[in-house]
Design goal:
single chain; 116 residues; 4-stranded antiparallel sheet
């Protein structure tokens, strides 16, 4: 079955950086668009960034453009989210997502807290 395991979250000061990873298994990774979402307390889950199967097409939320970079390594079945110039409003649980054969699949999430 599809499994998504996120890692790399933590506490960071404003202006700092983190790199999230999502290790995937149970499907042909290189075929599918991968997406990062986040959810802050009391707010709806929002799309952060997505990347096509081959990595040639990426999309970002306006709030993270120029600061975050999504990438993937299809040899390692892993998608990354490099987050730079972090702001307190980036504090949220970050989730990896893939839709495979009409099924929605989510990781367990990794917490990112941006605070001084």
């Amino acid at each position: 079955q599809v499994q998504l395991v996120e890692s790399g979250g933590g506490l960071v000061q404003p202006g700092g950086s983190l790199r999230l990873s999502c290790a995937a298994s149970g499907f042909i990774f290189s075929v599918y668009t991968m997406t990062w979402y986040r959810q802050a307390p009391g707010k709806e889950r929002e799309l952060v960034a997505s990347i096509s199967g081959g990595g040639g097409t990426t999309n970002y939320a306006d709030s993270v453009k120029g600061r975050f970079t999504i990438s993937r390594d299809n040899a390692k079945n892993t998608v990354y989210l490099q987050m730079n110039s972090l702001k307190p409003e980036d504090t949220a649980e970050y989730y990896c997502y893939v839709r495979v054969r009409s099924n929605n699949n989510w990781g367990q999430g990794t917490q990112v807290t941006v605070s001084s």
